[in-house]
Amino acid sequence: MALIAAAALLSSLRNRCALDPQCDVRLGVAQAGVDLGGVGHNPQAAAQRDQQVAQQVWQQFSQQMQAQDQARSQNLAAMIEQFAQDKAYFPEIEDEMLRQINMMREADPARVMFDPMGSLQRAHDLAIKYAGVETKDTKYERMRKADEAKRLASINMKSRAGNSPRSTPQDMYSEMGDIYDRLNGR
Fold this sequence. Notes:
The protein has helices at residues 2-19, 25-32, 43-84, 90-107, 109-114, 116-131, 136-154, 172-183.
């Protein structure tokens, strides 16, 4: 408060002294009864004030970071619960998922932090693959591959590899007859 009053007084004295070159600012301040000794620069007091301000800022920052970490942890726990909700096999792969997430965190920590659901899905897929757990998707994929293999095996591929060489026909008409016989299975 004294600082504001002193600044206002100095401003008014400066205005008066601008008109009167004989004006003495110190005399005007003394007449007003203001002590400028407490207003001056005190290095120890300034350092102490700066240190107090820095401690307050650090405490506020630490509290904000703790609150954000706590909120993020709660949010992640809710997301994991929702992710595991419809997966009956989740307890079987939970440990493997944790290992996969830890490996992803070591390889690319920013990806795990900024895309937690994508990282969780990738860890889930890898855990299923390594643990050998059969889900609806893996069961469907296995059945699809088996059906494809059966279909390919059922295709009748006739091969001429085991036949003895045939004699070459004498003319064009006998060659066309041989082709006709092969096409009609004679």
